[in-house]
TrEMBL record, chain A:
Keywords assigned by UniProt, alphabetized: 4Fe-4S, Iron, Iron-sulfur, Lyase, Metal-binding, S-adenosyl-L-methionine
InterPro entries listed in its UniProt record: PhnJ
Membrane-spanning residues: none
Protein species of origin: Mycoplana rhizolycopersici
Record Pfam families: PhnJ
Superkingdom of the organism of origin: Bacteria
Assigned protein family: Belongs to the PhnJ family.
Entry protein name: Alpha-D-ribose 1-methylphosphonate 5-phosphate C-P lyase
Amino acid sequence: MTTAASELATYNFAYLDEQTKRMIRRAILKAIAIPGYQVPFASREMPMPYGWGTGGVQVTAAILGPEDVLKVIDQGADDTTNAVSIRAFFQKVADVAVTTKTREATIIQTRHRIPEERLTTGQTLVYQVPIPEPLRFLEPRETETRKMHALEEYGLMHVKLYEDIARNGHIATTYAYPVKVEGRYVMDPSPTPKFDNPKMHMSEALQLFGAGREKRIYAVPPFTEVVSLDFEDHPFEVQSFDKPCALCGAENVYLDEVVLDDRGGRMFVCSDTDHCEDRRDHGHCGTMLAYNKGAAQ
Amino acid sequence: MPDTQIFSGAFAEPVFAAQSVFRTVMDCMARPGTIGTIAATARPPQPLGAAAGAIALTLCDHDTPVWLTPQLAKSKLPGWLSFHAGAAVTAEKQDARFAFVEKGAVVPGFGLFAQGTQEYPDRSATLVIEIESLEGGRPLVLTGPGIRDEAMVGPQGLPDTFVALAGANRAMFPRGVDLILVAGDRILCLPRTTVINNREA
């Protein structure tokens, strides 16, 4: 055994025991075979509270190998609490290589964003999902929602979107925007902004979803049709932003609003920190990027 | 003496071997038509091949009753599966989560195995079928999730009725069985979503 392996004596590789991994792996295979369908699984207690990505962590632990390069993002950022602690967790229990660069990663675990850079074959995106059932807020009973999925009875979801239009004049759902996968199952894409929905459609990467507290795993294989629900006269639209990123000048990316002072000062910056840094490294400048201007010239 | 076949032949490094076999199966299941190579070696009792044995060790345990063909059921395989994986063999196709068919054996009708229910389509069997070769046979065109436009495969050694069997399986969606075809150390996965047609002349 290598020295790295002997230092990991306390836990099995990637924390989970082998029987748990087999159980999760079987669930993942069935999830891939039935795109968009939520496979129940025996979610374990993890050394972090429910709601902190235990579903995603279990999926990642079940697929992770010593050859993998792991990236973890939280709302697009590599340097926020959830991302840092999950990355450190896998460094500790699996001694796995980590990166913040999207294109170098083989597995990307994400909380609520899809990276701006197009994912490619050989990459797997693992979503942390709080509430996997898209119909849950419309019908609280699991027995009923399961029947609705079985009968492909999704009228209620369209009623909900219609009520959005009746009240607000447009579909006001901006995140966790429901999608239909391969013309069959309506699926919750996890609370990603609807801006990211088009990236799921015909993606080259495999997308796996883990919900730890709710004990469900689901998947979207590569090259699978993912269509956001809409109406002919109210077609699906993604958010657009008035200004480009204040740091890197990127347009057509998802921006976060950052409040600067108590006098209404604010800036809009890329939510995907790696994408933003990469652009700045390549000389792109936004209007509020002061410190780097000299270096870029 | 006969016991050596039962008590030996599992993975040398169970944790990493199972991970590598699973990733190959996962990638192939996500991309039907793609041929993957099982890198880890297991030595199951004859006549089951090494790659199918590795898949059994990776995915089967006490939660997954296994169905075996009559020939495999007569071999040392039930003891080997029980000792290394803790998996019980069942004679009832409906109860099996996994089924193994060795090369040359009659492939049972897919409809005899658990199809899952409309509410729980995941409660269905996965069939691991050993065949002569994954290439060189009658060309089949694959379409469906995981395939960009279409994929072409030519497995040798499947029953003549395979396209009709697979079509009936596809028509049951979301219910149905999932297939893993094995030849040598190479595998090809055909989940229930894949539409399989003969190539038009």
